[in-house]
Amino acid sequence: MFATTAEQPFTVAKIPIASWSFAIRIWLATVLALFISFWLQLESPTTAALTIGVLAESTRGQALDKAGFRLLATVVGVVASIAITGFFSQARDLVLAAFAVWLGICVFAAKLLDGYRAYAAVLSGYTVALIATQQIDNPQRVFEFGMARGAAITVGILSMLVVNSLMFAPDRQPRLLTQLTAIHRRVRDYASAACRGEPDNLTTFLTLLQEIVALRPDIASVALESSSGSVRSTAARSAAVALVSELQAGRTKSDPASGASAWAARELLRRDEEVRQDLSDLRSARWPLRGWRAPLHRSWKTAAESGVRAAAWFAIASMFYIWAGWPAASISLSFVALIAALGATTPNPRAFTAIALVAAPIAAVLTGILEFVVLNGADAFPLLAIGLGPFVVGSALLATSKNLLWSSLGRVNLSFPLLMLAPSNPQTYNPQAFLFTCLFIIAAAALLFAAQTLIPPVSDEKRRMRLLAEARGGLQELDQTNREAPEEAMFRDASRIGKFLAAGGAQDSRALADMLSCFDQSAILRICDAKLMQFTDGSLEALADEAREAIAKRDTFTLRAIAHRLSERTPQQDSIEGDAAACLTMTSNVVARGSGVGSPGEAH
């Protein structure tokens, strides 16, 4: 009973104390950012406060990582704003067309990246909307407005860093080590079940694969947490890659081929030892023996199509606003770009727009209560700070929810109320201006949702079929690719499976089976090629070349014949020749199974 109690986190009002600490940090950082902005008389104090909402991450390393990319992307966006307005300042329509193209390029780049790199790509896009589009009638102020935005973002970042340091925001590394250790334990359990001859648990395999690949962005943030952060990040990345390799070995171990079972068992133990060594290096901050990369699969066609659609959505919104002739429509248009860009970093852009459409009226009501009921004409900064408390803390607590919908609403409401309130010194209370701002934000979300209904995002089915086609194509061209480490290539293939599952692949059993078959074949073919490389410039070079030719043709009969010749040459199973023979046998079995030739025992 005592052990169970100790495992439960301490809660206040049934909310973990860690969530309360996070929410209070966000509120204090928001107040500090506004105070410094008012004291320095910055032109855009709202941007400083919004930066806190953007950098609302639970750990210090994640906030630092995101802050760095936010600064870099802001610089890129300001430069792009100056360039676009400089070239097309005499024609408003050309400015909007150029920005639509720029937004499409940024969304294209975001779809090729993940984590905060993808966020930086879309930030480079919507920064132009917040600067160039809002200053479309005053192009001479673009540089000045861009500098003001950069100064405000810097203040926001520094405020977040100060509060995180003073309140001892947690690091990501301890929790990452715990997660990787727990995953390693589950991978070993999965592999042990396979060794006992139990049926392959596909659900467990896919869950573990997704969890490992999903840690990739967090691993990068560890590098900024301490002087040894880069070492720990490299060790964590190597551990993640090795975990995918061990998981694949456990899946391959379930193959009933008796001739290769001893090699498969040794291979599994070797990979398990690599994971344990990498986790030990992560724990002790030592450089790992192998600094594996964790490459990400990139779907260029899907990224290009997503970029074109984002540009089309913005173009549709622009044409509508030009046709409507609304005053101050440029503000609403910038929100269209903002929502479209941020939605590009999610698996379902239209669902993100729908959440924004729901959250905008809620934020309008909450902001109205704050501005005209709680503050009600007050201009003292302490009253503003106290008034913001329940709204910021409540949204931050909501953002920590494990429920994806509530978490998304919480994150959106960390930004929308501040956009609508637009804190200033002194604070203005203009009901008409407030109403127009709320209407423009809601209209932006509604118009974007309509554009996405007219031109839907890339469908899940299309993404799945494209990923499957890429897996098949990669398998066919395997012998023509550069000889990267098999473990790194496995991780890239695993990230492709993760994207496939995110697009609803678990419900498409036939396509999923085909995708996993490509994964199994690619993995074993690369491992086999690495084994054959050991015979270069030796007496077995000709035999190795013959085996590579058989691999290229997927000639399973020849592969088994070569394996038999190698086994006769060196009877010891744990020799280089014995390992290569067993690997060739396993390769022929996996290829035969993937090609539908038959079970390994029937292939004679």
TrEMBL record:
The keyword Transmembrane applies. Its main location: membrane. The keyword Transferase does not apply. It comes from the Bacteria. The chain crosses the membrane at residues 20-40, 69-88, 94-113, 118-136, 148-169, 329-345, 352-374, 380-399, 434-455. Pfam families: FUSC. One of its GO terms (molecular function) is transmembrane transporter activity. It is a multi-pass membrane protein. Keywords: Cell membrane, Membrane, Transmembrane, Transmembrane helix, Transport. It is found in: Cell membrane. InterPro entries: PHBA_efflux_AaeB/fusaric-R (IPR006726). GO terms for cellular component: plasma membrane. This is FUSC family protein. It comes from Bradyrhizobium commune.
